[in-house]
Design brief:
Layout (H helix, E strand, L loop, with lengths): L1 H5 L4 H12 L2 H11 L3 H26 L7 H8 L2 H13 L1 H21 L10 H20 L6 H24 L25 H4 L2 H8 L15 H30 L9 H16 L5 H31 L20 H21 L3 H15 L4 H13 L14 H21 L11 H35 L1
Length: about 475
């Protein structure tokens, strides 16, 4: 009877939980900023060749290792070695460094829009001063997190839901807008197929990492696989529905963006200010002033603050709780009176502080700094997805050894090849994503600086994970 009660989730519950985990309005804004209306075709391609197999692999891994809590490093631990599992955990933690470095920017921009009605408040600041303010914001919230105030689940959930509702509302209001008097679509020829056909050149492929970043992260829902009624049928159905929901929101949301912003003349600050500017424009269309923009700005700022505090603590806890002093120096595992890994926090603070301050020396424009850091996230964050595919390849080779209520594929070779394909595709888009999105001819110094930072940052962050076990062994030898 107890088992029946735990298997209470149906396919539609799984689809909605996963959708809320994976999807966000900024996915639409950031990818439209890079590709314009042609992103609609890109969304369809990425969903079919990458997102659907990715989520179904997660389903099988979560079902197979249901007692592991769904952690990627624990999947590696089960199918390979502790050393490889440590490195997976390190990657999962360290890719959050650029993410944490950008959160203060997002918080300041959201507050600026909510209280001034424009995104220009920080424009008169130099990048150095703006970066110092961001560093102060980050250190303040890291101090808050160090006091053990990490139980922000309710606030984060409420803010996340409000932002989510706003993104759905955007779709309805934007699509309906051309039917209003004196409103017409900003992008011409929206009924022509040619408007949506990308130019598959080198520049196009350098933007794919942002799409991969947008659809990644479904491994977070792995623990729900075995809470599903009839997992072998309902979980894959839930994942297909998830792909459909993501596809609908991505496509219709991108059409909404094309109605508000001309696809052939995309504002340079669209990544930074596009979401707020879009809601402000809709408010003007519907004669409700800045109400939509202020609501989005306030809910987003609260959500960003909660996400920053949780993301300082949670990935670090996964890294340090799951591994012994063979791989991680014992000093990093020191807890303060609030149960926080205080030396781990200091390491986080140093790495994030460097990433906030160093680029400001060479990047002299705040909007360019914001865009660069967002693009860096699209290069670095998907590196953790690689471990999902490594785990699936390892599982496929040992399929007879493990039981699973749900299997994506039953053939070992096909399973391994699918895992390898997703691994290869992720690595490919991350490497091409390193190419700067600014014009070389217009700013050769800035282009080379961004290229250097894009290459060096992920190498240094990953290399630190190789150095850590050496430090751990030296510490252990001294004891």
């Amino acid at each position: 009877m107890g088992d029946t009660n735990t298997k209470q989730f149906r396919w539609f519950t799984i689809a909605l939980i996963a959708f809320n985990t994976v999807w966000g309005f900024n996915n639409v804004v950031n990818n439209y900023a890079q590709q314009g209306a042609t992103v609609i075709t890109s969304w369809i391609i990425i969903l079919v060749i990458y997102f659907i197999p990715y989520t179904l692999m997660v389903g099988q891994l979560g079902s197979t290792f249901q007692k592991s809590g769904g952690g990627v490093s624990s999947w590696i631990d089960e199918t390979s070695t502790r050393g490889l599992a440590y490195f997976a955990a390190w990657t999962y933690w360290v890719v959050h460094v650029p993410y944490l470095a950008q959160k203060p920017q997002n918080i300041l921009i959201a507050i600026s829009w909510a209280f001034t009605g424009a995104g220009t408040y920080f424009n008169h600041f130099s990048t150095a001063i703006f970066s110092i303010i961001c560093l102060v914001v980050f250190l303040f919230f890291m101090w808050v997190a160090s006091k053990g105030i990490t139980t922000l689940g309710i606030i984060a959930t409420l803010a996340g839901m409000a932002t989510f509702i706003m993104s759905i509302l955007f779709i309805f209001l934007a699509i309906a807008a051309p039917h209003l008097p004196n409103v017409s679509a900003a992008t011409p020829h929206l009924t022509s197929v040619k408007t949506y056909i990308p130019n598959f050149n080198f520049g196009y492929f350098t933007t794919l990492s942002m799409l991969v970043l947008a659809v990644g992260g479904s491994e977070k829902i792995a623990p729900y696989v075995n809470k599903t009624k009839n997992p072998s049928k309902e979980f894959p159905l839930g994942m297909i529905i998830l792909a459909v929901l993501v596809g609908i929101c991505a496509i219709i949301g991108s059409i909404g963006m094309a109605i508000i912003f001309n696809s052939h003349a995309i504002p340079k600050d669209l990544m930074m200010n596009g979401a707020y500017s879009a809601f402000q424009t809709l408010g003007r269309y519907y004669h409700i002033g800045n109400a939509l923009m202020i609501t989005y700005g306030l809910t987003n700022s609260i959500g960003q603050i909660a996400a920053l505090i949780v993301s300082i603590d949670a990935p670090l806890r996964i890294l340090l709780s799951g591994h012994n002093d063979q791989y991680v120096p014992k000093s990093l595992m020191k807890l303060n009176k609030h149960g926080v890994f205080i030396n781990g926090y200091k390491m986080t603070g140093v790495l994030v502080g460097i990433l906030i301050m160093v680029p400001a020396i060479g990047i002299k424009n705040i909007q360019e700094l914001y865009n660069w850091l967002l693009n860096l996230n699209s290069i670095v964050m998907p590196l953790r997805y690689l471990w999902v595919f490594v785990a699936f390849m390892l599982l496929s080779r040992q399929m007879n050894k493990f039981h699973s209520d749900y299997r994506f594929v039953k053939n070992k070779t096909i399973g391994w090849l699918l895992g390898f394909w997703c691994f290869l595709f992720t690595a490919f888009v991350c490497i091409l994503g390193m190419v700067p999105k600014i014009s070389f001819s217009a700013n050769p110094h800035g282009w080379l600086l961004q290229l250097g930072l894009n290459i060096v940052t992920p190498i240094v962050l990953i290399a630190l994970g190789l150095i850590m076990p050496m430090i751990a062994r030296r510490h252990k030898a001294k004891v």
